[in-house]
Amino acid sequence: xxxxxxxxxxxxxxxxxxxxxxxxxxxxxxxxxxxxxxxxxxxxxxxxxxxxxxxxxxxxxxxxxxxxxxxxxxxxxxxxxxxxxxxxxxxxxxxxxxxxxxxxxxxxxxxxxxxxxxxxxxxxxxxxxxxxxxxxxxxxxxxxxxxxxxxxxxx
Length: 155
What we know:
The protein is α+β, with helices and mostly antiparallel strands. Helix content is 26%, strand content 16%. The protein has helices spanning 2-22, 63-67, 102-106, 132-137, 139-142; strands at residues 46-48, 73-79, 85-93, 112-114, 129-131. The strands form 2 sheets. It has a 3-stranded antiparallel β-sheet with strand order 2-3-5. Strands 1-4 form a two-stranded antiparallel ribbon. A hairpin with a 5-residue loop joins strand 2 (73-79) and strand 3 (85-93).
């Protein structure tokens, strides 16, 4: 009999809580039309930066791949006729990435950074492997409103 009384009391507490919130106005985001402002330290999708003349910043030193705790960055370096290094192959597996930002901190050239993008969904797993062309193409969209956490803006 004592258990039954406890169940009734618990049920009444739950109903009181429910009725307390029924008559309040709903707190919802108008997501598709109004996107939520992310916190300043939010780390989203990766981007590769270019210099003002259009040349890519990455010199394929491998520090970002070495700093990555899950090993989601793969790169192969090559030299051009001037002797400058550049990445022949640069891939990031966004499914494995934990968005820790270590790659961004390790890069001496400020070539890779994590932007503010949080809407990236695909219908197959192969689309989550971002190659160099895909990462370079995404950069101009985010250049204007991206601040470095450590201080200053990206050049």
